[in-house]
Amino acid sequence: MPSNFNEHEMTKLRNIIAELNREIIKSKEHEQTVLSEFSSMNNDLVTLQRELAKNNSRLNEAKNQAVQASEAKSEFLALLSHEFRTPLNGIIGMTEILLMSSLTEEQRQSVAVIQESSQLLLYLINDILDLSKLEAGEMKLNPSDMNLRSISKHVNMLLSAKADKSGNQLYSEIDDSLSDTLIGDGTRVTQILMNLVGNAIKFTQDGSIYTRIRVLSESDQRQKLRIEVTDTGIGITKEDQSKLFRPYAQTSDGQQSKYGGTGLGLSISKYFVNLMDGQIGVISDYGEGSTFWIEVSFEIKSNGETKIPAANELDMNRLTAVTLETTDCIPCTSIEHPILIAEDNSINRKVVLVQLEKLGITNIDTVENGEEAVAAYLSRTYCAILMDHMMPKLDGIEATRKIRQIEQDEMRPHTPIIALTGNVTERQRKECLEAGMDDYLPKPITLETLREMMQRWLPEMHDDSILNEEVVMELLNLSEDKKGELLESLLDMYQADTPSKIDQLLHHIHNNQYSEVINSAHDLKSSSLSLGIEHLSLLLGKIETSARMGCLEEPKRLKELLLPAYEKACSEIKKVLSSVHQ
């Protein structure tokens, strides 16, 4: 019995062992399969990692190529701008000079055609550059005081001749509750309105164009506005409306040669409105006119002062691109030292030379490249240097650096160097200023912009224009009941504040407080411009610009001129008021 039992148990144990062996074998086979699958997955993972690394490398390469392409595009546009503006400066400058001469009516009409064509070409160049800056994210808003009533009036005034030519009437309807002074980029708002009203005129014949500004709401010292430009023109189809506000997109009618244009204006306007956190749109039925609308909020200027036209409104005429006036020679007091023109293009050199002579400046030297500019600087003392940016042998940037180094090494007095350039990008402006240039004058150069620049950097050069008569007369005529009451009230306020502010500015200059000098000079300049006090404003503008450049040598030289200029201006305004009261 025991032996049978042992045999049975042994058999059972053998079977269990055999089963365990089979399980072990299966387990090992499964383990092998898992290991094989893991190895395969690991290989796949390694392959994926390699592919990811390759893709990352391709992405980095693509990113670098995109950056290089963007930089190449910017450089190309800068070069294109310079190349376009250089001959355009010759056309516009000489046209301006020609208009000052005695012309027959037929000749004057021919010059007017040249003037209009050059303006259109400059608008196109500006639009292309604006679009490039916006797409690159380089465009920034510059908020300051603005008066939308004045902006609307200014736009209609600028476009009135164009409207008359097409038999159109321009109208404005502005909400009475609109604040007189808002904080915003008045230049860009003007540009938007110029585009919208200009388009309305373009596509309307013998009709009406209305600019309406309504206050939608007011809260937290902000006003939400709706600005509409409505015309009675040809209208826009639903299909074409979907194309608007995209770069280079034009409606079917807009593509006709008789209307002209590039399709950039609306897309640029949309970019600006977006920067203002606003919205822009259109309502139109084909054949029944169009309404382009903008909804945007602006901060209300919070102070208890009487609202007067903001300073930036006086500069809005820059948007007209070219201002050709038939003025005579503008005399100035003689300057002690000559002015140097460094310009390689013979036409542009001649234009600037003639423009300076029209301003009464006849002591002028000219050179054709940067090397000659440095040599001329070493041989003579100049009161200012007008330096072209792109020149052979030595460009304007390097020539300026050499001159600044000579000034430092030989302890020479600071000579104002003003860049003359067809490249109007922010990057180019920065490069010029960092090289040691004091200011920046983009081509095409008009007589008025050149005069302003010379007065800014040469206070001794002025045309006895203590006051801007146009601004003074506008303020004089604003009083509804008693003529001159507003001007007299504003003068009283100005006289109450200005002497102490000038004292503060002098204190800041004496203590080398750059930011305080900038703020004080800007504040005084704005209030002075608003009253039409021109010469004092020019002095303050130069002080502000010099401080921004990190230099207080010029402000220290000019500070003694401030109080006499202030007192002379107040005296002249009192004479105007006295003549009115008689």
From TrEMBL:
> Domain named Response regulatory: which ranges?
338-458
Instruction: Spell out the SMART domains in the cross-references.
Output: HATPase_c, HisKA, REC
Q: What class of enzyme is it?
A: transferase
Where 4-aspartylphosphate occurs, the residues are 388
- What does the record give under GO molecular function? ATP binding
Domain Histidine kinase: from-to ranges: 79-300
Which residues are recorded with the post-translational modification Phosphohistidine? 522
**Reaction catalysed by this chain?**
ATP + protein L-histidine = ADP + protein N-phospho-L-histidine
Q: Where is it chiefly localized?
A: membrane
* The name this protein goes by in its record: histidine kinase
Instruction: List the source organism.
Output: Paenibacillus polygoni
Its lineage reads: Bacteria, Bacillati, Bacillota, Bacilli, Bacillales
